[in-house]
Design brief:
The protein is α+β, with helices and mostly antiparallel strands and 760 residues long. Among the domains are: 79 residues, no CATH class; 124 residues, OB fold (Dihydrolipoamide Acetyltransferase, E2P) (Beta Barrel), CATH 2.40.50.140; 57 residues, no CATH class; 45 residues, no CATH class; 223 residues, Metallo-beta-lactamase, Chain A, CATH 3.60.15.10. Helix content is 50%, strand content 18%. The strands form 5 sheets. An 8-stranded mixed beta sheet has the order 17-16-15-14-13-12-25-26. Strand 19 and strand 20 form a beta hairpin. It is globular and about 95 Å long. 38% of the residues are buried.
Amino acid sequence: MNISVGLTFCVAYIAGLLLSGAAGYFTIGTLAISRAGVIVSLGLLVLAAIASRYRALGWRSSIWAALACVFFLASIYMTVRSPVAGSRDISAYVERAQSIAPTHVIAGRVIEEPRLNRALKGQFVLQAERLKIQNANGETTFQIATQGQLYITAPLLQVTGLHRGQLITAIGRLYRPQAAKNPGGFDFASYLSQRGIFTGFVATDLQFPINSRWGLWRVRQRIVRSHLRALGSPLGQLVSAMALGRRAVDLPANMQALFAQVGLAHTIAASGFHVSLLLGTVLALLRSRTARLQVVVGIIVLISYVTLTGWQASVIRAAIMGMATLAGLATNRQVMPTGALMLAATAMLLVYPQWLWQVGFQLSVMATWGLIVTVPAIVRRLKWMPVTVASLVAVPVAATLWTLPLMLYHFNVISGVSILLNVVATPLVTVISLGGIASSAVALLLPTLGQLTAQLLYYPTQGLVWLAQTSSHLPGSAVAIGQISLWQLAGLYGVLCLSLCPLRSQIKRLKPLLPVVLVGFLLVPMAWQSLTQNQITVLAADDELIWLRQVKGQTMLINSGDQDTAFYTVEPFLKQAGVNQIDQAIALSTDSEHVFGWRSLLQRSPSRHLYSASELPALTNLTQRFQALQPGRSQVIGQVTMQLLGIENPILRVTAAQSWLLLPPLSSELQAYLAQTSTVLESHVLVWSGGALSDELLAAVNPKVVICYGRNLSEAIERRLRQADRQVFWTHRDGAVTWHHQHGFHAYLETKHRNAQPWA
């Protein structure tokens, strides 16, 4: 079997995994069979039959038949290996535990090193062994042996001294992770389920013995402490992250966000770049030694580095490719980079097929593919440059080109400065990465000397941070382009692959037009959406009222929420919608928490006009054009008529296609008083916080649609509304609610579920 056939089998296996969920499933007994797997496999068998009769397809019929089997078995393998909760999994007891008592006690073993999240709380994964439920007096009312993993968050001080392998007892409460309730939101439930975790736990207290047992955590701890003592925070953590990857280090969230914004996130993630540097350095130091010694030392170094970084997918992929290179060195054979890449990806997906859905794995494979197939062509185009400079330019261009579609699909943002910044920053990144690895090795043996070695990296690290910070303030450093579809993603990669294929002379002249086609896949749908867009959305933000109107590229936002709501809910929605500027911003609440929310939001999406129910210096400083809303007066803002009813409890009536009444939390008495004193309440849509809803107010508003944005909606009120033939939505249950000028009202979770159904 030649190499091309072997690579084709690898592609068939990966394609079978990738398409396992397409077209849905049908079951035979307990086995789920992918419809796409059956359809494609039958197509390949047809090709096998054609090849056996006409011999016109290049390969023998047996190869086509084998490809059909590989594809079909891969599609089944993905379904078999997909994580599912067992009967004794801790997730089976969540509702029962919540109904018995608010306090739950979990005993188990830590299987993942604790890390800090954005809220400066510790987070880690626990293998559950026993569940106890305690009443208010601390007495155990329920106890059972259990299994499965939990995602635990705990106060920072509680996780101090905690490490992998420890047996602990956690006191707190169980919860079920939630799916994303808004477009662009992070799907926490899906993220955890792909890792085989179906339960979350908020811990208030952790109990565990302080032991001195040796482990890799001590090695990482010694390295990080050495860098911190030498460089301080956050430069010390940054050097550690560039040496070991950010999964091994608690790099501050603002530093991670900064590097992600300007396209330098790969530098703080252990990847093929670090493995190549490390292996290249080892081979260079041993170039005068025998090939056998080079191979042995190289393998030891690769395995040690993979283990030290925590067995990250990108590092494992690079290490396998490095071992393939060492095998070629030992046998005096040339190793095909494409073959090594496909071998590494296939081997990893045979062991753990769920790696296919990890963004890090996808980006690592595509970046490496881009370097292999595109760098030589770019270097040839830059032959007027010195080879070193041409390679310095070609590497970030090729990596960015092949990872860009995935970045757009997953993150909806493009950085206009990333390519140039990567070219400029590559020398600094190389020095810091090699220096970080070297100082880490020295620190393990001689901590003092390791600190002195790390101090040499102060100015390069400071220079890299300065470059990132300066670039982040440049126009185009982070441009939201909106959510692209799977078909756009496939089209983008199709155009890139076509650019590599040899073309006939008749159509070769059209090859320069491929970049235009590439951009067209993005710009044409975006332009069409901008010209035809007309929708209003009420976001699911717990008890916060967030109202957005998008019409022909113009965006109006009412309320930002607090800082967490602005960052986790509003900003992701704007990114997936391709919104880089808010045309009209209206702040109904002006307390300090919401001012912080506006400040966080407007730093990325500035507003042309900011309106508020009251004038505060903290708000007026956020924009050049500020205007206070006048109570009782109708004002036209962005072709929308608004009328503010009161300042202490700001009630806003908005007329945009339909009339909307936005109601803050009000007691039944205040609702009745409002109904008696106001004559402008009648509206098509009532948006209210849940809780009380007086008959007087309901009669005065007389809505056709009622949207509850709070956490509490009583069954009695919902039943009363539906009996009155009113359409009722609850964001806490249904997700974001959107009105579209063609499709009317619909809930995000309902639409998401419907679109996820198998297509025939």
